[in-house]
């Protein structure tokens, strides 16, 4: 089998050009991916490591310029080559500004194409080499977005555990990305070909959980009319992710302990142990230490589950990630709901950054999703929920100037009384004139 060279993504709304490019490149053993729209191209980019992008500029819906901007941001090391019909001077300038060096006009010969591709590749390898010499690579880690210290630390821990089967315990508030971290451990590591099975122990009725997890034999209980495997057997060779482990009954806990100690499972109603080899990741946002005190969680199990602990910090402790996350969600839901790229008004981000995000990334995602549905091309402050605009929580680590606090408080009160200044001044015990002055 021939060894395939680089992955090349071809983007053009003209399928004939796509076929032509593909034929030329495949003849030279390049591995090609085709997309007839920017939308499709983005989907491919998400799942595949692309070395070179070859794109047309004028396309309906979203044009090649947007794709270049997007890739310059998210895949700075990817080679980019533009092929287009009639470029205007303005077009050429924009393209050059987005970091593209090679530019080919239609029609082109096979030889011209190959030369341009080689030049692009040469540029690209030197670019990625320089990056690799730096200790930290500033690219997204799988699906995990964020450049804060907190998220970098999480990524470092994932790197440590991804290639071994050490049991991992993930803690963190609701919506911080615990499941995403679990998936990343599995999919970034060397056992990624094995299954990844996520089980929410809180969503399965307590009396069924044991049988669902470990399987059962015929006659184990009424209704057990056949032998059945559970999630553990299904996850063999890969990873099982047990979310909300605090919901596991003591019976489930003791079976789980056996898996960890003896590397074997016993089906409900059976005596026979089956060997099993998998990685166990658990997560919870309940307080297991408290449960140990109340004797609802086994301490011997706790210590075996927490071989490696990964704490995912809440969003309010890594506010610098908000801009990056927001951008991702704008992109994702912009394409999904509006078939286009949606931007945020400049005053939206500061509001997002000062909110405390009790629901963390999931809350941010939901709020932006809703805002995009309500917006046209631009997400403005109006599309944000009222609570976000006025309900400012000052955590004890946030020191704000008194004036700022006063301002926010006045706005909050005004909001609460539907902008009725008479009422607001009554509550604030200042006269209307003072209120008007302060509002200025
Ligand atoms: N760093 C991140 N980058 C991109 N997306 C993220 C990040 N963290 C979380 N998300 C997204 O936020 C949503 C919530 O994440 P996830 O389900 O992993 O949270 P969780 O901690 O398991 O929450 P819960 O405790 O409620 O189960 C998901 O859609 C996930 O993809
Ligand atoms: Mg979860």
UniProtKB/TrEMBL annotation:
Single GO BP term: regulation of DNA-templated transcription
Species: Formosa algae
CDD domains the record matches: AAA
Name used for this protein in its record: DNA-binding NtrC family response regulator
InterPro entries, per the entry: AAA+_ATPase (IPR003593), AAA_lid_NorR (IPR058031), CheY-like_superfamily (IPR011006), Homeodomain-like_sf (IPR009057), HTH_Fis (IPR002197), P-loop_NTPase (IPR027417), Sig_transdc_resp-reg_receiver (IPR001789), Sigma_54_int (IPR002078)
Residues with the 4-aspartylphosphate modification: 56
PROSITE patterns to which the protein is assigned, alphabetical: RESPONSE_REGULATORY (PS50110), SIGMA54_INTERACT_1 (PS00675), SIGMA54_INTERACT_2 (PS00676), SIGMA54_INTERACT_3 (PS00688), SIGMA54_INTERACT_4 (PS50045)
Record flagged with keyword Metal-binding: no
Coiled coil (UniProt feature): none
Keywords assigned: ATP-binding, DNA-binding, Nucleotide-binding, Phosphoprotein, Transcription, Transcription regulation
Sigma-54 factor interaction domain: residues covered: 144-373
């Amino acid at each position: 089998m021939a060894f395939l060279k680089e992955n090349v993504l071809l983007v053009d709304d003209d399928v004939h050009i796509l076929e032509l490019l593909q034929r030329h490149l495949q003849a030279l053993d390049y591995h090609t991916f085709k997309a007839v729209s920017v939308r499709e191209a983005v989907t491919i980019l998400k799942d595949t490591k692309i070395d070179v992008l070859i794109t047309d500029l004028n396309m309906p819906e979203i044009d090649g310029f947007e794709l270049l901007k997007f890739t310059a941001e998210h895949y700075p090391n990817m080679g980019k080559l533009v092929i287009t019909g009639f470029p205007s001077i303005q077009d050429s300038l924009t393209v050059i500004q987005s970091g593209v060096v090679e530019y080919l006009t239609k029609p082109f010969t096979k030889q011209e194409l190959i030369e341009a591709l080689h030049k692009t590749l040469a540029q690209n390898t030197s670019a990625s080499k320089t990056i690799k010499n730096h200790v930290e690579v500033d690219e997204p880690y799988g699906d995990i977005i964020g450049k804060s210290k907190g998220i970098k630390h999480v990524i470092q821990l994932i790197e440590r555990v991804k290639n071994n089967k050490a049991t991992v315990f993930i803690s963190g508030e609701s919506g911080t990305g615990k499941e995403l971290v679990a998936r990343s451990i599995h999919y970034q590591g060397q056992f990624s070909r094995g299954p990844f099975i996520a089980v929410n122990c809180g969503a399965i009725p307590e009396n069924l959980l044991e049988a669902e997890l470990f399987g059962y034999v015929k006659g184990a209980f009424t209704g057990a009319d056949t032998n059945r495997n559970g999630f553990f057997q299904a996850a063999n060779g890969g990873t099982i992710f047990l979310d909300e482990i605090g919901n596991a009954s003591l019976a489930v806990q003791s079976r789980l302990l056996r898996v960890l100690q003896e590397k074997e499972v016993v089906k409900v109603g059976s005596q026979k142990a089956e060997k099993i080899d998998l990685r166990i990741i658990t997560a919870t946002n309940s307080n297991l230490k408290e449960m140990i005190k109340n004797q609802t969680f086994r301490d011997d199990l706790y210590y075996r589950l927490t071989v490696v602990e990964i704490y995912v910090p809440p969003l309010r402790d890594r506010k610098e990630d908000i801009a990056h996350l927001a951008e991702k969600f704008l992109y994702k839901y912009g394409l999904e709901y509006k078939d286009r790229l949606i931007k945020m008004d400049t005053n939206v981000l500061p509001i997002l950054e000062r909110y405390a995000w009790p629901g963390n990334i999931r809350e941010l995602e939901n709020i932006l999703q809703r805002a995009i549905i309500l917006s046209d091309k631009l997400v403005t402050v109006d599309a944000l929920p009222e609570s976000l605009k006025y309900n400012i929580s000052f955590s004890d680590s946030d020191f704000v100037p008194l004036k700022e606090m006063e301002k926010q408080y006045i706005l909050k009160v005004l909001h609460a009384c539907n902008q009725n200044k008479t009422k607001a001044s009554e509550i604030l015990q200042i006269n209307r004139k003072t209120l008007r002055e302060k509002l200025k």
